[in-house]
User: Fold Exopolysaccharide transport family protein from Mesorhizobium montanum.
Amino acid sequence: MSVQSAAADVDVDLRQLFASLGRNWLRIVFITLLVTGLAFAFAWLATPYYKATAKLEIGSRESEFTRPPGTNDDDKPILDEQGVATQVQIISSPDILKQVATKLNLDKLPEFDETLKMSALGRVLVLVGLKSDPFDIPPEERVLNAMHDKLNVYAVEKTRAIAIEFASQDPKLAAAIANGIADAYIASKGDAKLESNAAATDFLAPEIADLQNRVKDAEAKVAAFRAQSDLLMGGNNSVLPTQQLSELSSELSRVRAGRGAAEASAESVRRALQNGASLDSVPEVLSSDLIQRLRERQVELRANIADLSTTLLDNHPRIRALKSQLADLDGQIRNEAQKIIRGLSAQAQTAKAREDQLIADVNTLKAASARAGEQQVQLDALQRDANVQRQQLESYMASYNAAASRKDRKYLPVAASLIAKAQVPSQPYFPKIGPITGAAAAASLLLMAIGTLLAELFSGRAMRPAPGARFENIEQVAMPVARPEPVVAEVEDGPFAPYEAAMPGERLAERQSRMPESHATEVEPLEAEQSMPEPKPEPLPSRLGEIDVDKAAEKLIASGAARAIFVSPEGDEAAASAVLVAREVSDAGLRVLLLDLTASGAASRPMLDSSLFPGVTNLLASEAQFSDVIHPDLYSDAHVVPVGTADPVRAMRAADRLPIIMQSLTTAYDLVVVECGPADAQGIGRLVGDGTEVFLSMLEADDQVAQAAVKLIENGYPNLTLVTPVGHEPGDPLPGRRSAA
Assistant:
């Protein structure tokens, strides 16, 4: 809550407020009984209406045995809230209602056509123009309007069920119409299914005939292109050139591998012969049968030589003959190895020739395969078109067969069923005499009580004074008088109480008459002690010729001053003069602003009921703008700039800005009142400008005040005016403003 808020001027006296109900109980009871009696008579004489309800279930009713092949209930979308709401609108559509009205001859019943039995009151209303003439409306539309008024179709919450309620004066007719609407809705859904099936067969028959011709043409194009392009299909569902190319590539790889193996074998045998190495390690030599036999003969000869060497010398003819045979065997083995080399070389050359031939064939087949690939792309496109046409034809034929069978067999699976037929109601739903009478009694009693309380509030009889937010107490210093005044109990009568002097005698009686009872009781002991009324005191004498608040305000208004500087040498207690003068001038209709330059905020705090507002120190410290520091006085139309919440030391560093601030304020306001506290002539020098009046606020004519006045006069302010707030009584506040008395 803002610190600027204060208590209201008055408060509601709840005791007085509710006591008004007791004072006016007879009127409240009388009106309540009257309204209750009228409600009872209305409910007793009103025509009873009966309401019947039929319920429909919205959902698929298709059997799995009659469902078209390849479909199931999961393929069909489930109705959501919007779908059920759509069915509600269909049920209450004029077409459905027309069918029911025609079937039950509702146009011949006065309940649905008021022209058949129009009351005298209705004719009078038509004549004076308060009601439209029913004869201007077509009969069919009159019946439909009456049915709409009595019909209520709604979706049952959190279900896919729809309730059909119909109200009528005749309970049997109400049930018949509700059931008739449900039956008409189901029949309309069946007719819609029949029309849909008929439309489907009518559409699909020519489409199927056209598709059959297009399928034949597409397949003929595929066969003709295949024959023209000679695209023979081989294994793995590929064209013949592609298959041949694959086989030749495999053969070429095999031939290349054989040629490489033959060349490698021949080279290994050749190196063995050239290096004189043993041929036993060469696989091709070992695989030769002749060489194997020669090797066996060679082993045998060596064995014989070894046997004979034990008995014969090396030059023996027998040993020499064996050695000669052994040398011939080595030559034969080498000759045979040469033959093997020549055979392997011939084999490699043959493989090379075969490889060259295969390479030529592969290149030829590559070109043929490329051409076949291009032709295959065209063939695939024709084949896809033919397949699409055939699939569409098959789909159309399946749909046509399903629709035709349903049409021929009159099978119409409607997605709605009647789950509860409307029963003839035995009790009317309107009027309910007990509830209507009770509601009328409660409502009339409540309205009468509220009206009585509001009347008591608006009349002001239930209001009592409330303690508002008060100023900080300012210690009152009385003016010196010729004789002592009796002690009067201090009474805070409002925000201005600290600024009012306690008056003796009849002034005390006047103040007591204005105070609330709680305050008056506090003053009664004081009055009891005063047996004799004292005479009214004479105006207090003064040695310096001071004026009161009213005279100071009149002087400022008459002189047209733009600035009023108030100096209070006695401290914060005397700051009331600036506040009261500012309010008096503001009440005269001028725009007035009070600038509080006191250290304690004694001038602005009583006007705002708080010292927590930003003010002139915030403005000097550049923490706020003019719009932030100007606040309205709670008790007048004046505005006030408080001391503020910024650091005073920091603010005083920018004291040179005060003339600029004063110039801006005097431009916006008719009068700027400045409360400077106990300042001297040098202190107010920055505030003085054109059209400035300087006042010295005083509470008691003592030496301190006299010395301050003399110093101001000596320092350039000869037109100094002394003003005192003692004895001032504010006038009556304007409506809507807090009381100051």
User: Anything to note?
Assistant: The two ends are 27 Å apart (CA to CA).
